[in-house]
Each structure stands twice: as structure tokens, then as C-alpha cells.
Amino acid sequence: MRLVKHHCNRTHNCELCHENFKSKSSLALHRLIHTGERPYSCELCSKAFRTKYALQSHEISHNNERLFVCDICNKNFRYRGSLQAHQFSHNGEKPYACEICSRAFSSKSNLIRHRRTHTGEKPFMCEICQKGFSDKSCLNKHYKIVHINQKNHVCDICNRAFNQKCDLVTHKLIHTNEKPHSCEVCGISFRKKSNLIVHCQTHIAKT
To answer: Model pTM greater than 0.70?
Structure first.
């Protein structure tokens, strides 16, 4: 004789409206209707939703909107936290201090980057040559210069192109014959600061 197991169709009942649900999670979601609770909030506009899926669908509607505007310089930001960190640059406030050297920063992200100078941590790795970097912007710069040789900075006088803006600025001094870096000892001037540093060593050697 074969025994047939009868599975009881257990239901979860709402104690407020007595509606039945097949799962405990569905009941928990339903209860939010009664309590009015909306635990998922949009970081861009603070609009709240009962489900994570509804929040994700809403966030798509923002696309590239920048809703938070600095009332001092009118710069736009996507996130409230980014605006708050930016506003510190206007009032000079630096609430984030390094616990190792006490140097202070206006944003937490800058503090995190600074800490890596103490720890030597380089979490951003180049996928091509495996070289590590402490900052993502340094990794992007490395990739453009070393691996794809991207030269976006073009001289408007001779059309020579450079990887970095600082190299273009130095190059333009050739056209203007400007030499902004002067030796405090003998007064001789140089276009590049590195050349001035090398020159200064000659004075140190004579003393």
C-alpha cells in the first residue's frame, strides 16, 4: 500500500485586512501598504518606493540629470552627497582628517586617496601591463598615454599634439619665448622647472 503525502497549502494572513499570501516575503511587502512605509529612496530626488524594483525602474528616468545645484557657483551634481562635498571648497571647511598625518580634506573620497600614500595600496590595475595605481584617474591617464598614445592636446600655433595638457603648456613657451622659472642665485631663467632644478644643483656643488 502506497502512502500519499498531502502537502498543506500554508498561507500567510495579513492581520489587518485578512488577505492571504503564499509566501512570507509577499506578506511583508503587502504590509507596507498599511504602514505607508517606503524603504527604498532615490539618491537623486529622494522619492521613495516600497520595492527595490520600483526604485530601479524610477532611477532609469533620470538618465543623466543633474538635480543638485550649488547656490554659489551653479555647478550641477547628480548626488546630494557630491554637492555637499563640493560646497566645502567654498567655505574652506575640511572635515575629513587623516589619522596618520592629520592632513585634512574637504571630501571623504580625497581622504581615501590620500591614505593610499601611507599604505602604498594600488587597487587600480592596468589590464594590459598589470601596472598598479592608487587612483582611477591615474590609471585612465596611463592607459591613454602608454597604450593608445592618445594626444588630445594640440598646439594652435604649430599643430603639434601632446598626451598631457601640462606638456602643451610647456611647449607653447617656445613660441612666446617665455621662461617663467628663474634661478634665485644667478637669475638665469628656464622654460621647464625640471631644468631649473638641475641648474640649481650646480650652485650647491660650488658651496
So the answer is: no
